[in-house]
Amino acid sequence: MAEYTPEEQLEMIEISSEQAKEKVELRDAVAALLKNKHFKKVFSDYYLKKYPVRLISLKASVSMQDEQHQKFIGNQLNAIGHLDQFLSYVEQEGNASERLINQNQEEMDLIRAEAGVA
Question: What is the pLDDT at residue 100?
């Protein structure tokens, strides 16, 4: 395995931190959306909570038992689940990236101290 100079190590860590910063910014953007009253009304309160209840009622309706309607309702429920998972994933990835940025900073400080690099 190749040995990297302190400058190369610092550059690699900086690249990692820049990539992580993008994920933190995305997390923060989602957090801002979730606080927006219009987003909250449409997505958080209706689409992710009330709409699935409506779909479940439709799924049980006698008039919606044909394969086409059942598939449509199932796809809608899957889409809701995917959005909810995505929002959760963005938050978790942003949190992990924030921790990585802090770890990277500590590692960069250590490399600089050991190598006498500014």
Answer: 98
